[in-house]
Amino acid sequence: MLVTAVKHKKNRLPQPESATLEKGSALQSALPSSVASQIVVESASAPERIQDYVERLRRGKSFLNLVLVHVATGINQHRLRQLRSQVRGDSELINLYNETEKIGALQKEAIARLEKLFKSVLKQAPFWKQTAYWITTRLDQWALEARMPADCSIPGVLSVEADPALPEEEAWQESIVISACAFYTASEWLRHLDLSAFSIEDIEKLLGIRSPDALATDPALFQEREIERVATGYPILTGAQALINNQWEDGEYPYWKKLVGEGFIQHNIVRQSPSNQQIELVPGKAAWEIIQQFGPEAAYVLLIFSSYATDSEKPWEQQIRLKGTDLIRLFGWDKRTDITLGQKLKKIGNLVELVCSLSVLISNINVGANRYNVARGAMWLLEELEYSGQLALTVDAKQPSALSYEAGDPDELYIKVRPGSWTEKFLNGRDVSGKTALCQYGYLAKSTLQINPYRQRLASKLAIFLTIMSRIRQDGRYEVGTLLERLEPKELMTIVEQSKQRRNALITQWDNALLTLHELGWQIEFDNTTYPECIRPEWGLANEPEQLRTRPRNWLTLWLKAIVTIKPTVLIQEKLGSVLGSNAQSHSNLPTALDDSLGRSPNLTGAELAIALNAKGWSKAKLAKDLGVDRSLITRWIKGERVIQPKHHAQIQVLLEL
Asked: What span, in angstroms and rounded, lies between the C-alpha atoms of 282 and 356?
């Protein structure tokens, strides 16, 4: 196989044109010794056979692809050595299995980049002729001696698929020889590649491997706690309602609208173009097709985005980075076995796109000043949805010698969104004039996100709406009809008035929804005056009824006017009480009034922990003992298999003086 001497400029990866072919005697001396010693002149007796084999190798691509995979593996080994040197030689920091998978899943673009690197070599006819000669010589030797040539026996070497057009034994022998040739060729190419001047980032770009920083995500919600802060300003409230209550109005551009004071908030459907950060309104039928996909699960995603935006000092400047698998666990989908991981991730991606299709138009009218302001923009700017998964090496049945890559189901989804400009007014501690802004915060319970909207649709809607309203309406008193008007389509009331079956179904759904919230810790009380026992759910009765209860004839009107008090869990009420009390004293809605225990600081990475341990001179056993945890947990942290929880994060910072 032909050797290349690759020249490069400092701190730049070798360019395709920089790969050069050694001339004259250097050509032969650069080959593996097992090859060079046997190649004196090309066999004059079978030039046609050599040329035919050259054409077959160049046309099939399987040999070249295998060479490039070996080259990529070698380059990655250099990268791993650099990584080890950065973490002071702790071999446990490198998960070799995962790293091997990265190379095994090389993208077509990465293979193409490597092929360009050796472009000048691949253009040279001598390279292909001597490759064909090496292979045919070994095949002839095998046939003559009835045993595998010694230099073709390489344990564990990657191999090409056998040619189904040949007899089975002959095809197997050819596969072994071609694979050995690819291995030796790659070894020689690597020997002449000097990568010492290149950074890990440059090498990762060459291989198409994303660096850890590029895939860094925000810490997952609800780590060792059951509640999180969440923004509850009007755009969040109306945005959630627009996603769950189907009260959209028809028009050239369908819209959802709510009057607020002397102004209004309106939502439309928009299409985003992440490449140029442009948005456009989606008209008519196309918009309705999107609206029909809305539901509680999309509202869950909205609340998650809002929770992340809550902790940022300037959320409009913050990029929110999430992993799809974190959301799967958050929704409780990790326990589902009816759909695959890939299908779950695609469903998460679709929900994100639905939420990001929602625009917000805020109109403020000042009659006294004879002025108005209207601002429209996307609620959430979708910057990237990146699916990640394995590529499978496949063979075209029509061209068995041609290897190709086929994408399998994704095993991860990386989400990048940014809050819209509306957050400057509604999620800003103070506006540009220094006045108290409209930032308002409540608390989101983890259990809310795990209510199954397919089995408990009304319960999920209630939990979403009341999560936001719990800060706005502290007494928690609502008329049943008012809640239904906020959560259900407008035509529902007309339907239930006309259909006894629908009336009975609705009150049953309502009772079950309240029971679900009650079981999750929400506090529910029925007003004795307006909510008589004859229309209460059985679980809400003080005493078990002595006889079968029947609803009065006018129970629908009575029920819709009935008052129920629904408050969140005791823990959330305590937090809300402390926050509201603090706000009353400071006359401010600044997020700093919230309990510090709910703040999320960036997680310490495994590599950073290893470096800190080395700097301190501590072993993993020492740290485990001081933390009161098993040593294996420290190892998992360092390997990145487990996230360091906030409690341990704080202890580690103190112990290691970070």
From this structure: 13
